[in-house]
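Shipment paperwork, digital attachment
Item: protein structure file
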Amino acid sequence: MNNKPENLIFQIEGKDRKYERLEDLQEELKGEISQNKKIVIHWEWDYEKNAMQNVQDTKDGQNIKQYNFTIYAIGR
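Attachment content:
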């Protein structure tokens, strides 16, 4: 992971909870599945919400060209 914008959030499709950190999201995704399963993760960067957050959003936008992270899926 690298320099996640402060206001970037994640949400698993079909669930109400929103996650500010990938570390919190990963706890929800751990486990075993017995069949093919598709998990859709939406992301949202609610920028320009207000003047105070706009300063942070501008800073985040200047510091990042891409936001990279790795997802592992292990089959047996």
